[in-house]
Amino acid sequence: MTAPTSQSELIIVLDFGSQYSQLIARCIRELGVYSELHPFNLPIDKIRELQPKGIILSGGPASVYGKNAPHSSKELFEIGIPILGICYGLQMIAFQLGGQVDTSVKREYGRADMFIDDDSDLFADIQEDDQNPTINVWMSHGDAISRLPRNFERIAHTKNSPICAIRNKERKIFGVQFHPEVVHTSKGKEILQNFLFKICGCKSEWNAGSFVERKLEEIRSTVGKEKVICALSGGVDSSVLAVLLHKAIDKQLYCIHINNGLMRKGESEKVVKLYRNTYHFNLDYLDATDFFLKKLKGVIDPEKKRRIIGKAFIEIFEGEAKKIGNVGFLAQGTLYPDVIESTSFRGPSHTIKTHHNVGGLPAKMNLKLIEPFRELFKDEVRNVGRTLGLTDEFINRHPFPGPGLAVRILGEITKEKLEVLREADDIFIEEIQNAGLYNTIWQAFAVLLPVHTVGVMGDQRTYENVIALRAVTSLDGMTADWAQIPPEVLYKISNRIVNEVRGVNRVVYDISSKPPSTIEWE
Question: Which residues are catalytic?
Fold first, then answer.
């Protein structure tokens, strides 16, 4: 991502390995300032070239003294750009500038009361009560500063962290031990606002509309006179992507919907009808069910499933590109959570799982990728969709994984299992819609477990499948909690599935949060 041509303001977030580094960038964008996430070792010359208004150093899992710990260049603190270090970023400032970082006597994880010692800049106007100089903050650290760097001063502390926030007012270098980017810090948004507007001198000018205009310009410049294939599944991301591309390059866009046999009930038919009749796209439909199921036969490992599916998609797209002719690009609706869970591409974060459209892609491809949403979260893509005029039918759809039902059938995939899962999933979604719950839930789906249980149906013993129901609430998919669906609704769903779906005699409900669980089971 490069800074927008019509937008001079940029905040750079340097990633030191936190799984939530993008949350910082997202919070900045929500405040109306464009932000980009870059690796912690971004060259100083590149930083100067980007001309950011400010730099934020993210948190991370390492200790500054640890082997292979990510370290920034000391030159970073000499280029005259305001800096805010968060958690590990604070410790990096102290480490690089001559302070002391030690293992905490008592680690801090979770909520803490922070006492504000100076509210003249970073903490200006954030105290909830003039009589109580504390705010609630979210901590996650085992190390802490024990000695300030030269010319720095303490501006906040907690009971267990005597130095919780620091500053060098003259050089505009600040650091906080807590995480202002998470909702658990009561005044985190206001603290970031102070950094952006009071310290960096930013203006609030970036929004979904400016993002769309910038991306339209980028796409046209990148594509030139070549053609683009868009992988159109019919979900939120690919729908918004297709409309954006169509607006940018019109007839140079060729959408392809591949029925890989892993779609929800009636999904492919709905997608083809909608986009051909409503949007009048160049849309090809391919039924590749047998092709995918043959490749997945006997495969149990979820990572292998994702890689097989990713490679199979590319094989088909490249074959279709040859038929169309003059196709140079493949467009995908890849989002940031896909990227951060698939690969440590920016900083030293840990891989959680491979997404078929990221880590699942083959190393060599004939088509170049266009991924306009690679830095965005789902809710940001929805805002882009609204800006483009998409209806709520598109915008409010629950996420659906690229590998489809392949990662919702635990174990080997067969046509019989797919039919069982489709029917159960369709009942689940229909009933939460009937109950008026669909738009209050981030994502809901059924999972077919690789176990059989004993049951009694019609006075006879059964030994059949178990369906697990999963429904979560979330803002961006990076964290989630299980949705508290009323018992009477769950009862109706369970009753319908057991009675209407042959081969199922038991239904369970997943009450796990993320973390420690992921939203999908595989």
Answer: 87, 179, 181
